[in-house]
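Replying to the earlier thread about multi-chain prediction with a worked example.

Input:
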Amino acid sequence: MSEHFRSRIDLEFTVNGEAVELTVPAGRHLIDVLRLDLELTGSHAGCEHGVCGACTVLVDGQTVRGCLTLAAQLDGAEIWTVEGLTESGAIADLQAAFVERNALQCGYCTPGMLASAKTLVESGSVPSREAIREHMSGNYCRCTGYEAIVDAIETVARTRAGVEARVEAKVR
Amino acid sequence: MKASIGGYARAESVPHALSLLGEADGVGRILAGGQSLIAALNLGVSAGDMLVDITGIETLRGATLDGDRLVIGALTRHGDIARDPLIAEHAPLLAAAAPLIAHDAIRNRGTIGGSLAHADPAAEYPACVLALDATLVLEGPAGRREVAAEDFFLGLFETARADEEILTAILIPCARPGDRHVIREAARRAGDYALAGLAVVRREGRHRIGAFGLDDRPVLCAGAMAKWDAGDVDGMIAALAKDIDPPSDTQASASYRRHLAGVLLRRIAAELGEAQ
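Result:
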């Protein structure tokens, strides 16, 4: 092998706000670094070819597939998983709405659902149900039939938009 | 499954990436957004590749104007193509195509250069660059060359790019006032690869039609284009059926795809004001 190609890669990034330094095999997926090396098992490895969405996490504020991203590509990145998002309270309303509306049964898809839903409800507007379905179409759920998931996300989007409207009114 | 790779190197510039590809001795593979490559590696389609990661080459990201051409860097991500006002103004076809590709999480990583170089016959961008009459820029050890989109796609996942070359940019003639850009596709679920899709550009009464999911490669539908230019809508639909040679697979039969293509083209023609 040429000296410039490496089979192990030294990495520094932050996960859930904490600095992490580690050396990983060059082909290690982000999802496996999270689950196996860092023992953050909230995010799941499902289909492992980018279809099911169970491994969806946030990298630099955007959703990515943990199974289609090599950890080697993420030097310096800021990564958030369901564990950190739960601890920070950033998705507490989404989680409460999912429970309230029974938007999960086995829970396998839920961490990925929450990561995807987070970026949608943060947009500030209230998306149509069709837009919610389109946005969430990359996350498969085999239990709920999706109706409850769309309900929960719609509820949070409405509540957040309402709260923001009131805050804006006060500022004025 | 897990990807099995031979090695990984991070390129800091295009010349650096080219030298790494040279060192890889024929098994080098360019890693851009990775949304098709890593899926393929996970499925075991390829193993032992030496990955040359070009995602850190910032000069390959984003769109700029060069006279009456729009220059899109190969590493521009689908999400950026959907949101960039410069692309919306000068290549609205691409701005409309990007949201049709897969899902948010894929669009946040996948790149236009990666999609074109991968040349999936069911992907949106290859058909778009045919309809846009775009030019692809390749850089290799022997220098830089430009290849017309029409000459780039050679077959199933096969392009005019040599193994030691990198696709670095896409050059697109800017849309003029009055030009119309339309893309329509039929897919079973949001984000799926299309069963059939068409990208259409109308300029000064002339039409270019790029088809995807309808052959072993993206197709410029010359027969249908000539009939449309002559104002013969029924003749255009009949010609389209001969321009394409759709595959039959578990998703759809060839005859169904051919039917869908005709339906899509009729709808696009109606949208562009053609009497039916």
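Chain B is about 35% helix and 25% strand.

Feel free to reuse this layout for your own posts.
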